[in-house]
């Protein structure tokens, strides 16, 4: 069909009719093989869909699908699975106790709340979850975001917008740290909008139990509302909402949150009373305040923190991590440190002698369920949805990771349902939104966890602490919990060191990572996440605008196979004489429609609009046809001028250098009205100057749009299945 000439370019050779009989125009192919479109009305489709679901309904199937534990227990092998699940569950449960208390304190709620969450979340996920190795409970990131909601509530109450359980007091900004948190340890909350102004607004508790009870109810109300929203979303199949957040975005966001978490725990490490800063750049304001108060550091608290962090780090780094392949169960060093610190603090009277802040009263027993006042959540629904979407995204990512590793299927809709129900249950039992823990999931898997039954043993361990052991944590130093949080975040900050390699792999993904991380640091969690999602979407749009539309040539990869590749990137790609092949490597829609036309004109070297303008100038200035000037006709002069100005389309001797443009549309995944208008504009403009335009490789997803807009009917003769069929139709003059 084509042969090489002496210049190295390719020329068309004559094709016998019998040889080309198997080539189809696209319109012929579609009319022959495509099934007719379903003309059924939308209302009929809905009715038929509902009727099919009713007929296919089975109580047994529904129960098996809604409660995956039923299927798990049916195939459960007590001999093979029980021992592994028991060991893994107990191991994860031991880790839950100190981490749950630490992360709950991070949310500015009592540490015991973390144990409630760990118990009810694990128990609920045991029934509803499809991730067999997942360990649920309190998460640092979600706890900090919940603290942000509670801060907003405190500010609202302080401003007179809520119940009168808080009292607003105007004080001077030069108050000492004792002024923020008095000798009686009553909680106080700073209104950040005036954090560094004269006349800082401080919110002081009149009745601490009443205040904390109300804050617990706010957290519960937000969790219940967000959970119900997620449950509803799972029932209508919106599980793909997590696709808005790429792995790069989630990782960058979590690292950014980690900076906030560490900053919030520095006050506990140093024994300082630091007001919670809110608003933009709050992390910077907090560090400025911390440095200004360094002389007031509690030395006893600092020493306990340093020793706790050092012990936890050394055991994790040089024993648990180093020998994890040999050790089926890692040393529960956090729990060991908590127990030892509690004992020493109790007998050495750290709280009374050295003013070391301790956990104090820990309520015993399971809290009774209480349905919170949902009106308390009306101002924070958006924040709650953001938190639970993050919880779902992290949980689904871990579930899929474990599913791939152990060869089982994870149902994303069921995971969304489980995440929503867990949130509702936790909200009813004095808790808040939770998710699967990455570190504990890895430990539970490494300890041999086989099924969700491991979660049952983990919740049993937590229940034991709630019912029996809890009261013995009265003298546990709070700085130990801060130490546990900081050391457990070390792996997050190690991800900063992989940025150079990530940049080499994908600059776009790395840009999303960096924006999500530092955007979260500066703008705080909620605004930072939304800004990161918007940045990610804008980057996608930008990529579609900058994705090259290239001139393609042919490469013979084998005797009967031809590949189209960019002539700029592949020197072996050969162009055809009188033919330009343009490869469209992007969806065609309103964002890049104008860019598409200008790039096609640029890549072909021929701009039809310029040709027509210059042609009209020649017609206006030239004498009548046939007039002889110095032995030459006007026609000859016009051809000479056109050849000089437009060398890419004519050589001045009546020969067209560019006769055909072939647009390869195989990479157009979707097209809109403006994209079709741009395509029609290119075809019409080139046709008006004598250049034929052909389209090849149009994907089936684009065809319905071409048909509904009339493009299909108008341009059916220039649409071809393959390059070969398009070239077979070309008749070069």
TrEMBL record:
Keywords: Membrane, Transmembrane, Transmembrane helix. Residues 569-730 form the STAS domain. GO terms for cellular component: membrane. One of its GO terms (biological process) is transmembrane transport. It holds the Pfam family Sulfate_transp. The chain crosses the membrane at residues 103-128, 134-150, 218-238, 244-262, 297-315, 327-348, 380-404, 416-433, 453-473, 511-542. It comes from the Eukaryota. It is a multi-pass membrane protein. InterPro entries: SLC26A/SulP_dom (IPR011547), SLC26A/SulP_fam (IPR001902), STAS_dom (IPR002645), STAS_dom_sf (IPR036513). PROSITE patterns: STAS. This is STAS domain-containing protein. It is found in: Membrane. CDD domains: STAS_SulP_like_sulfate_transporter.
